[in-house]
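User: Before I run my own analysis I want an independent prediction to cross-check against. Here's the chain; please return only the structure tokens and, at the end, one sentence I can use as a sanity check.
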Amino acid sequence: AKMAAATSDLLTGWCLFGLVLLAILVFCWIYVRKYQSRRESEVISTITAIFALAVALISSALLPVDIFLVSYMKNPNGTFKAWADANVSRQIEDTVLYGYYTLYSIILFCVFLWIPFVYFYYEEKEDDGGNTCTQVKSALKYTLGFITVCAMLLLIGAFVPLDIPNKKNSTEWEKVKLLFEEFGSSHGLTALSFSISSLTVIGMLAAITYTAYGMSALPLNLIKGTTSATYERLENTEDIEEVEQHLVRIKSKCRDGRPLSSRDRRSVRQLEERLRTLRRRERHLESIETSWWTKFCEAIRPLKIVWGVFFIIVALLFTVSLFLSNLDKALHSAGFNSGFIILGTNLTNPLNMLLPVLQTVFPLDYILITTIVMYFIFTSMAGIRNMGIWFFWIRLYKIRRGKTRPQALLFLCMILLLIVLHTSYMIYSLAPQYVMYGSQKYLVQDYSQYGRHLWPGFLGFNYQLEQCIVTRTYLFLHKFWFFSAAYYFGNWAFIAVFLIGLIVSCCKGKKSVIEGEVDEDDSDLSDDELSSYYH
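Assistant: Structure tokens:
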């Protein structure tokens, strides 16, 4: 009966997973269609963007699932459930591990093969505009460089041992044999972990750039709102009249037949370009002013303020917890050579205090972890949308509703894939014990008292290893100490960028209702795209 109940619970879990997967695919389709350019949309780039974005969201959902499964196999009193014998628990662990293998392999495939190939294929199509065979060959040629990097990372991770026995009389053949034995014993876990950790470092840089800013900009933008479309339209009309009068004054200089000076001609070109931009703004403002979407946004304005306050509270909770966790590592870890890893918690933080309290009421702790993970993802999206795609100081692409180029969408999805990889370590930094063991408790023999007593929490690391099951997430996090050291310094940079972004966002005024929708390099055809979006 207990086994049947466990099977029923697992079937229910799989049904819920199917519904979540369907919801993720629908959200990805809506998100991509919302931002992609109608004039430049391509089937292959659209499918690639939707698939990559779905993989990013599904991968982010693995951490709460992993924590839930290891916690679900034990009772609140610290004993294993009747159905969770060694074989069943091993099967569940292997299933989760294979899930990580599959998703992380798909991420490697997307980052190093599929997305680069589609990107370069589309670039060649714009340049050549003709032969498909030539486009495929050129795209494969450029993609080969990414494949080479991926192969190098896998080889380094597979055949560079972490612990080399110091045997002076060992031969070269014995050393090579040791490498293959380590590779075989880890079943490729070390190779995959090294590759994923390398990408996670890049994801850390993306999180510092985009997520830290998005965590401050998104809540404050929701709270402050946007300027009124009617007010902006009146200001825009005044600007049009002013530019037209300026043009008339300059052109009046040549009424007697005298040609305009080079300075005046340059001014006329600039003013005419400015006038075209202002008239495009007027058309966009007219569309927004009469659209049902604007009226709906005005109706839910109080709800936006509530969400903005909630998001800023989550951001402050996240940042304070990250600061205290990093400070704990700085004061109590073994230092740089150990990757600043600590096995216990000496300085508690708000999240570590909150999770044990929420564990008493199922499933509040999982809801909190899932909320933080999804908040991390959506603030990353907001940061990329507000800042655009940058390469150092060069702005490559903008993310705009109904006008985003296919290459920009591919970049956005690749950045999100990399940020998702870093999310697991960020959550581990906030609550290391919870990420390793979930809500598991264990039994300890205390000879100073009578019998066996339950010691909740993490009072003895050896007892944890013997009686508790470690999440599969942890296996990918701390294989290499130098990556952990890089994450530690990255956390400090993340906190600094968040505080700078918070100050900047507070000092900035309200955003324009058509912020980023109209640029001087837009064509008049782009007005039709935005009009169709709002109507």
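Sanity check: The first helix runs from residue 2 to 35.
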